[in-house]
Amino acid sequence: MVTPTRFFNLFFLIMLFSFPQSEINAQMMVQSQSSSVFTLPELGYEFSALEPYIDTETMKIHYSKHHKAYVDKLNTSLENHKLKGKSLETILEMVMENDEDMSVLNNAGGHYNHNMFWKILTPGGGTQPSGSLEDAIIKKFGSFDEFSTKFVKAATGVFGSGWAWLSVDKNNELFISTTKNQDNPLMKNVVKMTGTPILCIDVWEHAYYLKYQNKRADYIANFKQAINWDVVSKNYESIK
Ligand code: MN
Description:
This protein has helices at residues 4-18, 21-32, 56-78, 88-94, 102-119, 131-141, 144-156, 209-212, 216-224, 229-239; strands at residues 162-168, 174-180, 196-202.
């Protein structure tokens, strides 16, 4: 006779063997690694949202191929690494430019840099810096136009692949700098000018080549039209 208890046991056994063991293991691994696994953030707008400044196809490939690859490789490179389990910011502060750290350095940088890049862009056109950031820009550079000229010059002058940054140093002073590859100003053991970034521009060819080919200056001029200065101002406020 099939009692309710025996029926339940049978049902449980059928359910257990209905799931492939590999799937169960994979779920358990995700749970046990959840504190150290980095994920691709939500973009927050459509791939087409930054047209005509940044084209849809470039956004699609840049976000879902390039940024995703940095996230995946970061997770892989941390598997047996001493920095596993640390926050992204701590990893960037501690990472060294040596063979042991190089994959973590490149991919942690790639993840952090692109996180900021998507956030400081806005659909529907850019605004102007406001509040205390506007004051700080005028104090440091003389005027917004003068800052803009210097930032464009820095971004245009990056040799090969890299980034240009507006950051805040330990004395709360703004500064413009450039970095190679996926380096950034948080990497104390790697770059000369260190601080907390509030604005960045990606000048790797993958950020502009489909639309602009070799015309990096045109890409930079159009990128400026898509900066979300409200977010940059908030980044600045959050540091002070
Ligand atoms: Mn990029």
